[in-house]
Structures are given as C-alpha cells and as structure tokens.
Amino acid sequence: MAVAAPAMHHKGPDRTAINRLGLWLFFFSESLIFALLLSSRFFLEGLNIPLKHGSDEQAVDQVLGLAITVILLLSSVTAFTGETAFEHGRKRLGHWMILATIVLGLIFAGGVAYEWKTAHFTRGEAFGTVFFTMTGVHASHVMSGVIMLGLVWVQALRGKYNEKNHWPVSGVVMYWHFVDVVWVFFYPALYLV
Amino acid sequence: MNKAMQLGMIIAVILAVLTVVEYIFAVNVDDTAIRFYGLSGAAIAKAALIVWYFMHFGRVFRPEEAH
Predict the structure, then answer these.
(1) Which of A108, A184, B3, B58 is 20 to 30 Å from A117 by CA-CA measure?
(2) What is the pLDDT of residues A86-103, one digit of tens each?
C-alpha cells in the first residue's frame, strides 16, 4: 500500500556560510605558519634590528617599510570598497576598485623586491634569513592574491557577479585582508622593534 | 551602500592613524621593552579592526539572511 511521504520542509545547507567557514579554517592554518615565522624572528634576533656594516644606521629602510605598509593598507580599503560595491550592485565601481587593489598589490610587491635588492644584510646572517623568509613568504601570498583578484576581475567584467551572487569577490577580498593582517604584525617585527 | 562605505572609511582612517603613531612611537621610544609592548598593542588593535570590519568575522556565526 502506498503511503504518502510527509512533506519535507527541511532547508538545504547554506552554501555561502559553508564556504565562509572553510575560508576561516584556511586562514587559521595559514596563521600558524606566519606565527611560527614571527616567533623565529624573535628567537634568532631578539628585539634587535641590525645596523648597516660600519654605520650606526639601521640595516632596513624605514621609509620604504612605512611606504609599502601604507600602500598595502590602502589596497585593503580599495578591496573593501570593491566588495561593498558588488554587494550593492554597483559593478562599475567594483571593477575599478578591484583593479586599483591589483595595482597597489603589484606596487607593494615591487617595494619588497627593491628592499631585497638594496638590503644591507645577506641571507647568511640570522636577520637576513628571517627577513628574506618572512617577506618572501608574505610576498608570495600577495602575488597569489593579485592573481586571484585578476581572475575575479576578469569574471566580473564578463558580468558573472551581482548583488545575489558575489561570493567569489568576497572570498578573494577576505584573503586579501588576511594578507594585510599578516603584514600588520610583520612590519613592526621587521622594521620597528 | 553609503553607510557601509562610510564605516570603511572611518576604519581606514583609524588604521592610518595607528600606523603613523606606531612609526613615531618606534622612532622616539628608546626603551626596548616599552617599544615592543607598545608596537604589539598597536598591531593587535589594527588586526582586530581589519578582521572584524573588513573581513566580516561576525558573519561566520550569523545565518546568510541576516547579512
């Protein structure tokens, strides 16, 4: 005898919420790597920043450090503005802000590359080891972010995102902010302490 | 939209001020321990602002409809 199935009003899983939680778990695991790098900096060099050889000036370029920090901070603002624009359907503003974030990210990476080229220490020294490792790992994340922002930007130009569907933009922008948070700790550890 | 943008700008200004204060503090304070704790405090404050307002950490614990 056929029995009528009870009406199912069960709501399916919230895909965006699952994506968001997964991204935060990824951030947590990444944070452990960056925390270990940060602790190795203090383990190897204590609270010191070495001086240039034969000089009483610090070996790191303070002005350059501050400049690239401001640029990365500014890129977080453009990324936030871009994400908010897509959330509210202002696609044109969103396109420009994502593009500005990409450009600022590339300028930041260029600043790090310049610092590497003009560094007054070598990778054979303890500070050089942590400096090149920390900035190198961070810069590789910046370049990953630039590539992902580029992919999202192209998809956005093709009209793939709108007010209802903008999770890829939000996800990449969150990753970009995470990279900024890492630099918030790396900058004082490498340049100011 | 405008409200969200305004909030973003306010957070950006606070972050910029904290960054400049951090730099001036580091350049002018000679005591290593005080400098370390001061810079750590500024970094934690900046990170908390970015995580909460820019990365929308609060949304992790809210249903999608509530955004």
Answers:
(1) A184
(2) 999 999 999 999 999 999
What are the structural domain ranges in chain B?
2-59
Total number of domains in chain A: 1
Does A29 map to a domain?
A: no
Answer yes or no: is pLDDT of A153 > 90: yes
DSSP letter string over B8-65? HHHHHHHHHHHHHHHHHHHHH---HHHHHHHHHHHHHHHHHHIIIIIS-GGGGGS-GG
ipTM for the assembly? 0.89
Residue pLDDT, tens place only, A110-124? 999 999 998 888 888
A3 in a domain, yes or no?
Answer: no
A16 interfacial to chain B (CB closer than 8 Å):
yes
Q: Distance (Å, rounded) from C-alpha B58 to C-alpha B67?
A: 10
Question: Is the minimum CB–CB distance between B2 and chain A shorter than 8 Å?
Answer: no
Residue A137 within a domain: yes
Q: Which residues of A touch B21 (CB under 8 A)?
A: none
Judged by CB atoms closer than 8 Å, whether chains meet at B55 and A66 is answered as: no
Does residue A44 have a pLDDT over 60?
A: yes
